[in-house]
Write a structure and sequence with these properties.
Length: 428
C-alpha cells in the first residue's frame, strides 16, 4: 500500500467507528420512547411516543443550521471566535455535505446530534401528560441545539475555557449533557406545574402508577445498551498511538468497558437499598450509576467506579423523593437521575481524581465546583425564562379538559392503546 492508501484507510476506519457509535446511540432514543410510554397513563401513550419521535425531527435541522457552529464558536466564553473550524461548521460549508476529502465532519456531527437528542429526551419524560406539543418542541430545540452545546463548548474540549483555565474535567458529559438538561428541565417544571391529581388538598404527593412498568424497564435496558456507544463516541479514535479523551489526554476503551459496567451495577444496588427494593427506582438507579462515573470515566479504577455508582444510585432515590415532597412533579425522576447523578459525577471527579497526573494541566476540586455552578446556571436560566414566557402567553400547558381527557384523544384524535375488553369485543 502507498502512503496515500494508508492515510485513506486510516480516515475510513475512523469514519466507520463514529458512524456506528451514532447508529447504536439511536437505541438510547428508542429506549426513552419505550420508557416514557410505560410510565405514562394509557390515555397519553401515543402522544408521549409522538413527542419523542418529533424531538429528533425538530432538533436535527436546528443542530445542522447553528448547533454545530456553536460548539466551535464559543470555547472562550460568550464572545464567538472566527477561524477555520467555525467556518467549516457553517451549514453552507463544503464540509457540511458529501465532501470526498472529508471523512470526519459528518460522522462527528452525527455523534453530537445524538447527544443533542439525549438532552431533549431527558426533559421529555419529566413533562409528560400536560405540556403542549408546540411548547415542548420549541424548548427541546433550544435545549438540544443551543444550551447543551454551549455547555460543551465551555467545558468539553481541549480548548474550552473551563478546562484550560480551571482544569475542569467532564469526560463523559455528566455536566454538559446530564446536569445542564436536568437544570433546564427543573426551570420548566417550576412553571409547568404538577399533573392533575398528583397532590391532594393538603399538598401531599399521590402515586400515579405507570400503566406498564415492564415496558419502562425494557426502555431503560435499551438506554443502558446505547450508553456504551454514547461513551465510546466521547473518545478520540486514532489509528496510531493511544486512544484520547475529549481533552486529548491518553485513555483506553478498557476503562470504558470496566467502569461503565461497574457504575451500572453499583447504581442499581444503591437504588435498590435506598428504595427498599422498589422496581422503578432500582432500574433507574442503574442509569444513575452510569451517569455518576461519567466525568472521571477515563481515569477511575473499576472498584472506585462501583462505589461512585453505588452512591449515585442512593443519591437519585433520595433526591427524587425530596423533590416530590417539595411539589416538583417529575414524572420519570429525570432531575434526580440526570441532575443528581450528574452533579455527583462532577464532584466525585474533584474529590477522587483531582490532580491526576494524566493531565499537563491538573484537574482540581475548585475547577469541578465552578463547573457545577456553570452547568446548573446555564441550564436553569433559559429553561425557566423561556417556559415562563410560554406560560404567560398561555402556550405552555394544555387545558384542564384536555389533560383529563388524555392527550391521545385531545391532540391526536385517536386512542393509542385500546383497553383489553374493548379489543376483545372488536375481535368478536
Amino acid at each position: 500500500m502507498t502512503p496515500d492508501d494508508i492515510e485513506l484507510f486510516a480516515k475510513k476506519t475512523i469514519e466507520t467507528f463514529y458512524f456506528w457509535t451514532g447508529v447504536l446511540m439511536w437505541l438510547i432514543h428508542a429506549g426513552f420512547m419505550v420508557y416514557e410510554a410505560g410510565v405514562t397513563r394509557r390515555k397519553n401513550v401515543l402522544m408521549t411516543m409522538m413527542k419523542n419521535l418529533l424531538t429528533c425531527a425538530v432538533v436535527t435541522p436546528s443542530f445542522f443550521l447553528f448547533g454545530w457552529w456553536i460548539y466551535y464558536a464559543f470555547p472562550h466564553g460568550v464572545l464567538p471566535v472566527s477561524n477555520a473550524l467555525t467556518a467549516a461548521a457553517l451549514p453552507w460549508s463544503a464540509h457540511m455535505g458529501p465532501n470526498l476529502q472529508d471523512n470526519i465532519t459528518g460522522v462527528f456531527w452525527f455523534a453530537f446530534l445524538l447527544f443533542s437528542f439525549t438532552t431533549a429526551s431527558i426533559m421529555s419524560g419529566a413533562v409528560i401528560e400536560r405540556i403542549q406539543l408546540g411548547a415542548y418542541l420549541f424548548l427541546a430545540m433550544v435545549l438540544g441545539s443551543v444550551v447543551w452545546i454551549l455547555a460543551a463548548a465551555w467545558g468539553w474540549s481541549d480548548t474550552a475555557w473551563l478546562y484550560t483555565k480551571f482544569g475542569f474535567h467532564d469526560w463523559g458529559a455528566g455536566g454538559c449533557v446530564h446536569t445542564v438538561a436536568a437544570a433546564f428541565t427543573f426551570g420548566v417544571l417550576l412553571n409547568l406545574g404538577a399533573r392533575i391529581g398528583k397532590y391532594n388538598d393538603r399538598g401531599e404527593p399521590q402515586v400515579i402508577l405507570p400503566h406498564n412498568l415492564p415496558l419502562t424497564m425494557l426502555g431503560l435496558m435499551l438506554i443502558f445498551t446505547g450508553f456504551y456507544a454514547f461513551y465510546a463516541a466521547c473518545a478520540v479514535f486514532q489509528t496510531t498511538g493511544p486512544w484520547m479523551s475529549i481533552y486529548l489526554t491518553p485513555m483506553t476503551l478498557s476503562s470504558l468497558a470496566f467502569t461503565v459496567t461497574m457504575g451500572f451495577a453499583g447504581g442499581a444496588m444503591g437504588a435498590f437499598i435506598a428504595s427498599r427494593g422498589e422496581p422503578y427506582w432500582t432500574i433507574s438507579g442503574g442509569l444513575a450509576g452510569m451517569i455518576s462515573i461519567a466525568s472521571g470515566l477515563d481515569v477511575y479504577h473499576p472498584g472506585l467506579g462501583y462505589l461512585i455508582g453505588f452512591a449515585g444510585g442512593m443519591i437519585a432515590v433520595r433526591f427524587g423523593n425530596f423533590l416530590e415532597r417539595r411539589g416538583i412533579d417529575d414524572a420519570v425522576g429525570a432531575i434526580a437521575v440526570h441532575g443528581g447523578a450528574g452533579l455527583w459525577s462532577m464532584l466525585a471527579m474533584g474529590l477522587f481524581a483531582s490532580g491526576y497526573p494524566q493531565h499537563d494541566l491538573k484537574t482540581s476540586l475548585g475547577g469541578q465546583l465552578l463547573g457545577m455552578l456553570i452547568m446548573v446556571a446555564l441550564g436553569f436560566v433559559p429553561g425557566y425564562l423561556l417556559s415562563l414566557i410560554l406560560k404567560l402567553t398561555n402556550r405552555l400547558r394544555v387545558s384542564r379538559e384536555d389533560e383529563l381527557k388524555g392527550l391521545d384523544i385531545a391532540e391526536l384524535g385517536i386512542e393509542g392503546v385500546v383497553p383489553a375488553g374493548e379489543l376483545s369485543l372488536a375481535n368478536d
